Amino acid sequence: MKFPQYFSLLIVSSLLFACSNESDSDTEKSGIPAVITPVPLDTYFPPITRTDEWETVSIETLGWNENQVDNLYTYLEDNDTDAFIILKDGRIVIEKYFGDFTKDDNHAWNSAGKNLTSMLTGIAQQEEFLSITDATSQYLGEGWSSLTIDQELSITIKNQLTMTTGLDYNVEDAFCTDPECLIYLNDIGTTWYYHNAPYTLLDDVIANATNTDFNSYFSEKIKEPIGMQGLFIKVGYNNVFFSTARSMARFGLLNLNQGTWDDTPILLDTAYFNSMTNSSQDLNLSYGYLYWLNGKSSYRVPGSEVEFTGSLIPNAPADLYAGLGKNDQKLYMVPSLDLVIVRMGSASSEIQLGPSGFDNELWGLINEIIQ
Description:
With 371 residues, the protein is α+β, with helices and mostly antiparallel strands. Helices cover 34% and strands 15% of the residues. It has helices spanning 5-30, 59-62, 69-78, 114-126, 137-140, 149-154, 157-162, 196-210, 214-223, 245-256, 270-276, 357-370, and strands spanning 81-88, 91-97, 107-108, 231-235, 238-243, 260-261, 264-265, 292-293, 298-299, 308-309, 321-325, 329-334, 339-345. The strands form four sheets. Strands 2-1-13-12-11-8 form a six-stranded antiparallel sheet, with helices on both faces. Strands 3-5-4 form a three-stranded antiparallel sheet. The protein has a two-stranded antiparallel sheet with strand order 6-7. Helix 4 (114-126) runs parallel beside helix 8 (196-210) and helix 4 crosses helix 9. It starts with a helix and ends with a helix. This is CubicO group peptidase, beta-lactamase class C family.
């Protein structure tokens, strides 16, 4: 007896449905869980051979809120961002470029590059080329400023690292490093003011102490060992570092691992690293050795003599430390969350030399994703 074709299909479908139910039932009875991608717990270091190879981890795997990512992207784009990266344990979670900017394009770090100079100073000290308690004059010679000899000899490398030189920041050009621009205002170590000129002179201190070109020493000690690219370029009086966003992320990862890249020690001096990333003086608790610090009880900002009460970035984790540059160049490092976050672009609103309102707004959106 022959069945019509639709009866044959009905019988086959019923059998498949029965088998499917039986299979599902058997899986449930066996207790076999659904496949879940484990969260990698080890720290990943991308290869130093300057390839595109870099491990990623998904937002879903981390259990973060993917629904909030578009809000973050909209905010970044609306605020003239060129590049944005989030690393978790060294792996890329988010990497986004805007407009014509690409992962191969270089961007100015501006004052976020102060972090590079600070770490390089620590390396020069561990190699015994200098001590941060040395007088700056030991490496720049007599007459590098318009101070008296005694005043000049009182300024140390540590004063340059901590913005406590006492030099006059009210001069016509606060970036000027010529002797006539470097005049006495306050006793050394009695005031904190974000003064670029004494910081810039650290480059000459390091070059003279090591008897080598500043870029060459940086390349040998930091850039090449961790696979960065980029270059310090003279812009007026300033020495500005330019690199890709991924190179900035690499340096952030080096910091997150306290100066060690994978198994290669870069900055061995743990005492210096701890001093660099903690309050370096009592005048601005939110400042280390050229690093900005969150979670302190008060802070001062560039261009102001006022002390503000509270944390530098209230929305951000208390243990965050950062490189913060003009036009909102951001390098955030958060040890408690194993995060490195990079933002490069133009100014989000009004031009600021370091911290700005953009930091807190951005962290509000980041929290919506990671929490």
